[in-house]
Each structure stands twice: as structure tokens, then as C-alpha cells.
Write a structure and sequence with these properties.
This protein is an alpha/beta fold. The chain has two domains: 195 residues, Flavodoxin domain (Rossmann fold, 3-Layer(aba) Sandwich); 37 residues, no CATH class. The protein is 41% helix and 19% strand. The chain contains eleven helices and ten strands. Strands 1, 2, 3, 4, 5 and 6 form a six-stranded mixed sheet that branches. A four-stranded antiparallel sheet has the order 7-8-9-10, with no helix packed on it. The longest helix is centred in the C-terminal third of the chain and has 20 residues. It is globular, with a radius of gyration of 21 Å.
Length: 306
């Protein structure tokens, strides 16, 4: 029996969590074993931007996050052991909630062992994001990025992004939305059983690689997907916009093996440049370090002086 983890990033029994539970119940009916994890119950510290994870990866090390004393490793262990992952989050002003963004920032430090395990044992994954209005446009790529970083090598099989659900439990009024969430759960369960045959089955975005709709225009008819960074050609066929990418273009998409290597090469080159200019940086840093103290509320100043 395959195991699926459902990660809720919002309120207890909020709209996103209700749809997540609907998906998990449908997955269980399809023969999967499901576990619900609520991000609000966990302590996940902020990423400090120390670069230890990336420096470790580019130097042949583990690349594991050095922040300790929270529940990040426990959560990543649950995700790594699962054969399927469904992440659900509320949408606040175009993007998913802050809890999910905090986790997304930390997910870069999953460590080489988890990364390699994910690539050799690919899981199936899907995302659910619910907003109160039509201000939901940036949720899709960020939910996709969360799945990609939490579950390296996973096959994303579905995405459900819905607006217009501003009141508590309002999704329960929409039979079509409930059935759509159930279908997502069944898709994840089926894909988890046969990941070698799994494929994306959700809404077809304009990018043929990641299925997202964020396209950045370049020169002429050239454009690039702002999410997976696959370049291609824009055209209009039968009144519809098309984005066509060649096999060579696809090879360089940022989440593939070549794209990941190019990313690490860029970071390695930046660190080398910084190392070569260390003395100049140290000298030029002095006036910035001497700049006035930041304005703080009395409560914070009191803590520092205690």
C-alpha cells in the first residue's frame, strides 16, 4: 500500500484543508494510506540566508540546512518516506501564505541524501491552493516550486488553484470543486503506485514543460517561461497563443539535470568572484557597518538590554 502525506499550510479546517482532506479521503478509497500533517503544528525557523546549503552542494558536500532546534528535519523525513505528497495552502494577495513560503525557503537545504533518494525513488505530487477572490495568479508557480523543492524528482500530476472562497468552509457549497479535489487525490494515488508511468494530468498551461502560464517576452517572437526558464517561440494558431520549445531548449530548463548543473556553476562562479574580491569587500563594508542602528520598538530594545 502506498503512503501519501497531505501537508496543510493554513487554518484548521480552512477551505484549503477541507479540499486536502477530500483529496486524501479519495486517495484512501483508491487504496492508499494517507497521513495529514499540519504546518501550523510545527516549528519551522526562518532561513538565515547563510548559504551553507548551496556552498555544501557546489563543493561536493551534503548541502543540508544548518539550522537546528525545529521540526524541519522531522517534516522532511515524512515527505521523503512518502510515495505521494499533496500540499494545500491558502492564497493571500496573489501568493500562498507565509508559512508555506518559510518552508519553501528552507527546502533548499534538504541535503544531498534526500535529493538523491527523491531522484532514485520519485514520488507523485500535487498542489491545492484556495483564495478568497480572483487574486490568485502567482499561486500556481509558487505551489509548483514548493513541490519541486520539497520532493526532488517527484512527478507533479495535478494542480488545483481556486478563487472565490472567502468565507470559512465555503468550498463545501461547490460540488464541482469537491469532486475536482477528489479527482486530484485519486490521481496522486494512482501515480504513486506506478510512478514510472505517471504524468501530469492537471490544467494545461501554455508552457509545455512545467504547464505554468508565466511567459516572459524576449526579442521578436522568442520568449522564456519565467518558472522553468525554458526558452521557446511564441505564435498564434487558430486564434490561440502557443509556446513551442525545441528539444535543445528543454534540455536547459532549470529543474532538469543540465539546468541544475548550470545553476550550481553560476553560484560557484559568484563565490569565486567574492573570494577574489574579499579584501576590497572588507574595506568597502566599513561605512555600512558604521551606519546608524535600526529603529526598533521599545519591547525589542528592552529584550536587548535585559
Amino acid at each position: 500500500m502506498v503512503n501519501i502525506v497531505g501537508l496543510s499550510c493554513g487554518r484548521k479546517n480552512g477551505n484549503n484543508e477541507l479540499l486536502l482532506k477530500q483529496a486524501l479521503m479519495a486517495a484512501e478509497e483508491a487504496g492508499a494510506s494517507c497521513e495529514l500533517v499540519c504546518l501550523r503544528d510545527l516549528k519551522i525557523e526562518q532561513c538565515t540566508g547563510c548559504e551553507s546549503c548551496m556552498r555544501g552542494l557546489i563543493s561536493g558536500g551534503d548541502g543540508k540546512c544548518v539550522v537546528r532546534g525545529d521540526d524541519y528535519d522531522w517534516l522532511m523525513d515524512q515527505v521523503t518516506r512518502a510515495r505521494g505528497l499533496i500540499v494545500a495552502a491558502p492564497i493571500y494577495d496573489l501568493i500562498p501564505c507565509g508559512r508555506l513560503i518559510t518552508l519553501l525557503n528552507r527546502a533548499l537545504g534538504a541535503g544531498r541524501e534526500r535529493r538523491e533518494h527523491g531522484k532514485s525513488h520519485p514520488a507523485s505530487a500535487a498542489a491545492i491552493a484556495v483564495g478568497g477572490s480572483d487574486w490568485i495568479d502567482l499561486a500556481e508557480p509558487l505551489m509548483q516550486l514548493t513541490l519541486t523543492n520539497l520532493c526532488k524528482g517527484a512527478v507533479v500530476v495535478d494542480r488545483l488553484i481556486a478563487g472565490g472562497n472567502t468565507a470559512p468552509s465555503m468550498v463545501l457549497l461547490d460540488d464541482g470543486l469537491l469532486e475536482r479535489a477528489a479527482r486530484l487525490g485519486r490521481r496522486v494515488a494512482a501515480a504513486a503506485k506506478e510512478t514510472d508511468r505517471a504524468e501530469y494530468q492537471g490544467p494545461k498551461g501554455i508552457c509545455p514543460v512545467c504547464r505554468c502560464n508565466l511567459i516572459e517576452p524576449l526579442e521578436g517572437t522568442r520568449a522564456v517561461c519565467a518558472f522553468c526558464h525554458t526558452p521557446g517561440e511564441l505564435s498564434i494558431e487558430n486564434g490561440r497563443l502557443k509556446f513551442v520549445c525545441s528539444p535543445e531548449d528543454v534540455r536547459h530548463q532549470r529543474f532538469g539535470p543540465l539546468g541544475e548543473q548550470e545553476h550550481q556553476d553560476d553560484i560557484r562562479a559568484a563565490h569565486q568572484k567574492a573570494a577574489q574580491g574579499r579584501e576590497l569587500i572588507r574595506e568597502r563594508l566599513k561605512p555600512f557597518l558604521a551606519y546608524g542602528a535600526a529603529l526598533q520598538p521599545e519591547s525589542v530594545r528592552g529584550e536587548h538590554n535585559a
